[in-house]
Amino acid sequence: MQFAEVLRRRRMIRCYDATRSVPADALEAILQAARRAPSAGFTQGVSLLVLSMATERETFWRIAADDDSRWLRGMRTAPVLITVWTSEEAYLDRYAEVDKGWTDRDPARWSAPYWFVDAGMASMAALLSAVDHDLGACFFGIPADRIPAIREAFGVPSSQLSVGVISLGYPAPAPAMGSPTHRARKSQPEVIHRGAW
Is the pLDDT of residue 131 over 70? Predict the structure, then answer.
């Protein structure tokens, strides 16, 4: 598939065909796409926890969400959940190395928290790879008050910061939902500025 077509087809899918599993080779390609995303200083501080067994996903949903909204019912049908984590410590350690030289490890030196920027890049690479493999995906966050319980249930080290989750599977026929159904895409002049704002 051509890259322009992948971009055109990318959507946040919120309901999956629960009868179809994600092929192992497609899942591996998606994970490798995330792993190949840019990384500040080649820190490689983004980690992925893959939940593909029914018991793992059930544990995740029991801890992460307790409502029964239409959105959540659809998301629970995803056969794979990829939780995305990052480590601020890894970036601060990396930039205190000799070739970078910020020995004070001060996060204020950073123009943006690149541990989150890189996690966003890895997540987008995974989302685009999903489309390239004819799969659907959606990125969503874990409620902040539920992260400690998720961390404990799955043995995630305390140094890891939750970025979000990518649900993955074959899209099910479902009515469109989400923000794009009631918000128009901004025009090009509203978001692209040339030479000056």
Answer: yes
**Structural domains in the chain (count):** 1
HSE-up (13 A, CA, CB side) for residue 23: 7
Query: What gap in Å lies between CA 183 and CA 197, rounded to an integer?
Result: 24
- The strand ranges marked E within 80-191 are 80-86, 136-140, 161-169
Enumerate the β-bridge partners of residue 49: 83
- Report whether pLDDT(175) > 70: no
Mapping DSSP to helix (H, G, I), strand (E, B) and coil, where does residue 37 land?
A: coil
Question: Under a CB-based contact definition with an 8 Å cutoff, are residues 145 and 121 in contact?
Answer: no
Position 86 in a domain: yes
Cβ neighbours for 87, distance < 8 A, ≥ 6 positions apart: 45, 47, 115, 159, 160, 161
CA 35 to each of CA 13, 51, 124, 190: distance values in angstroms, whole numbers, following the listed order: 22, 17, 11, 32
0.85 exceeded by pTM: yes
Residue 185 domain flag: no
Instruction: Average the pLDDT over 8-25 and give the result.
Output: 89
